[in-house]
Amino acid sequence: MYALAIHGGAGALPRTQFSREREQEYRQSLARALSAGQTLLERGQSALDAVEAAVTALEDDPLFNAGCGAVLCEDGSVELDAAIMSGSDLRAGAVAGVRHVRNPIQLARRVLEKSQHVFLVGDGAERFAAEVGCERVPNDYFITQYRSEQLQAQRRATPVLDEPPLGTVGAVARDMRGRLAAATSTGGMAGKRRGRVGDSPVIGAGTYADDRSCAVSTTGHGEWFLRTVQAYDIAARVTYGGYSLSDAINEAITLRLTRLGATGGLIAVNSGGEIVMQYNTPAMFRACLRSGEPATIEIY
Question: Residues 6 or more apart from 292 whose CB is under 8 A from it?
Answer without folding.
Answer: 1
